Amino acid sequence: MVRKIGILTSGGDAPGMNAAIRAVTRTALRNGIEVIGVHDGYRGLLEGTFEKLERGSVSNILDRGGTVLGSARLPEFKEDEIQNACVRNMSREGIDALVVVGGDGSYRGALALTKKGINCIGLPGTIDNDIPGTDFTIGFETALNTCVECVDKLRDTSSSHQRCAIVEVMGNHCGDLALYTAISCGAEMVISPETGYDELEVLERLRYLSEAVHKRHALVIISEKITDVSALAKKVSLNTSFSGRATVLGHIQRGGSPVPRDRMLASRMGEKAVDLLMEGIGGHCVGIIDNKITSMPIEEALERPRSSRKRLYRLFDRLV
Ligand code: ADP
Fold it and tell me: From the CB of 108, is ligand 1 less than 6 Å away?
């Protein structure tokens, strides 16, 4: 029987993590289970920075971005000895199960602890939408909203001049933020890990748009870590009739109050995590697949290929 659950947020923060903390806390308390908030991810397990959470501890956090528990990276957590020290700290505190909100790195940590006898459940928290075992992650929708708001504004000013706005969005090897932003904003081009990148092709297409189609402006959405967007903008200015301007949206995409869809997702997933732990299940991660809250073993999720985005890329091509 589970008597005390710990909860931590790990890896990159994402809007909606607080909604998950609140949902886990309140669902557990309703079932007579105590809740311990662990500060700064796995680092808090090692350093024993625990805080007892009551119903009121998670009041007024649902609408707040970031994570009230803090997040951190602890590379040493991969080491067996460090994991054992964390398990000892949890046992001393009486924590017999743990909810981990984070990405696939955090999931691996959760799996390691489960194998050492502390049942853990992973919830997908990241703006990148790059976590296996779910169609959507907590935070993606809010980040998309931020991207769309920013890009709409850039489009207004670009169309007043003959500009090509090149906007770099986050994604961490996953093109979803770029693809969804590009479709939502009616971009002329999307460049992502899935599309691949050929600079000459990009310049040729922009030349065609400016010289043959006589477009007054062009919008290119590109995922991070693909190319230096400032250098690309300069080449656009030199090789096409557009004046190229690069914008890197950066960490602004991580912030802000979570949109209702992320609050709903986090609330549903948080409830599910506690239900699983009460059933004695550990080493699973929660997801939303075809709009149903699901769970599967973390090992299975990590091996699953990502569902294909081909149809959405085709949609983008048809709408350009
Ligand atoms: P994310 O969870 O967003 O993928 P990271 O990859 O940085 O972010 O992982 C977050 C934390 O999870 C790391 O700092 C580390 O403490 C832990 N972690 C990552 N990979 C592993 C692993 N293979 N085994 C155990 N713990 C891990």
Answer: yes
